[in-house]
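mind reviewing both lines:
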Amino acid sequence: MHPQPFRVGVAGLGTVGASVLTILARQDNALTERSGRAIRVTGVSARDRHRDRGHDISGYAWFDDPVALARSGDVDCVVELMGGADGPAKAVVEAALDCGKHVVTANKALLARHGLDLARRAEANGVALAFEASAAGGIPVIKTLREALAGNKVTRLYGILNGTCNYILSRMESDGIGFAECLAAAQ
């Protein structure tokens, strides 16, 4: 067991960010057992400090500036969940990578526009840029394509590879509700 916890900063506390906090708290013992190291959220950042997220954030250091969170000496890994291809999301990820911190993101737009540059930064600084949650609703398809099928030439991949679409279609079928209501819930 590693003596020091792995310290996580979460930038963006919308539906997904708040869920990440809840899951990390709920799965604390299981994650520690599986990884051999405690995983602790040490800092958070979002646009509105006082918004009700269904999760008590008072125990975490608050950062008005998400780039300051990314540069904090109390964070080993930044989870970027703000969204957007440029602006604060890009600045947070770049700052974290440049400071030698691992990054996890579900930001499709950011990766589509700046993925190659961000991957180069991560490699140059010896840290991970984890983005599997940005594709296929977190299904381990990217890791499988990159590692398990490395000797194969994959030319096409078919299916619903978007978690939001999967959520909407599943709710429409299982709950018998309309598209507009499902879309509003997803948003």
Notes: The helical segments are 15-26, 28-35, 66-71, 87-98, 108-124, 141-148, 163-175, 179-186.
